[in-house]
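[stage:ingest] chain + small molecule (iron/sulfur cluster)
[stage:ingest] validated
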Amino acid sequence: MALLKKRYATRQIKLGNIKIGGDAPITVQSMTNTYTQDVDATVSQIKRLYDAGCEIVRVAVPDMEAANAIRKIKNRLKELNSDGIGNEIYEKNSGINIPIIADIHFDYRLAIASAESGADGLRINPGNIGEKNKIKAVSDCAKSLNIPIRVGVNSGSLEKDILEKMGNTAQAMAESAMRNIAILEDLGFSDIKISLKASDVERTVEAYRLISTMTNVPLHVGVTEAGGLYAGITKSAIGIGMILADGIGDTIRVSLTRDPVEEVRVGWEILRSLGLRKRGPEIISCPTCGRCKINLFDIAAKVEEALLQCPLTIKIAIMGCVVNGPGEAKEADIGIAGGDGVGILFKKGEIVKKISQEKLVETLLEEIENYHI
Ligand code: SF4
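[stage:predict] done
[stage:export] tokens:
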């Protein structure tokens, strides 16, 4: 039985230069944690995110200064070039062109100011924007500037009447999403994507399963406030992974209490693990055991760090011993296995040469640089 179900057919929207929904690739996005008003810090973080493979970035807009900073941030990014790896979305040496989404709560004027400042999309929750005339002002502005709106439904901020009727359930989240979609569509605005996030896997998965049968609006998928490294990665991998495996989801955001660059790396690993998209090398390494006589953890960390910007989509194995290493990692394109005083270099499971332990990392990196797929 295939791991992945057929992808749900959602309608396509465009966020700057990125398509979302329909047959577009599932994109990886993140959110800055700098003060958006601090243009230098925000530009620097967006560049790091972009270099790591972030395709859409969201910034918090708590006040007018932050809204106005979006234009400066976009202009500054255009003057920079990526040090990141190429893929089908990036264009080398053409400035950093990444869609910026303004994240707004409560004050509709911040949404309008952000759109006028050049934001490529808005993230609002119509429920907390208030009266219909305010929502209309935002959707009219987005329509005139041709930018989409993400309706962000969060289990922590559901409408009171829905909560009273349905409790804090996946059904309530789907109901809130449908209500918010209807509010915008009644105002003649349909350039929408939607997210339904809870901080637990069960409700999140259930909510996405429900909504995917109710609308063809493209879906932004994530588990919100997932936690630190261990809990966050685990919840995100299981939650986002289950949803994507069901054929649901058009763009993903991993939420971690960490440097957002880590979110992007995890996002790409989720897509790679499901065979949905690839970016850069895949490193497989053994956990080590009593046969290992080298510092494999250190070697694996050095290789991983050195290859963060590597463009090749090759499979690299880093194995602790020559007894089982090459055999266990036969499907790898290239790899090393530690021995006693020496290590070996292997390609496609075949031993190529012996190398002194001290030169294992250096030799592997050289071989990868010269490797032709
Ligand atoms: S490759 Fe060797 S060191 Fe690593 S787990 Fe397997 S047997 Fe142990």
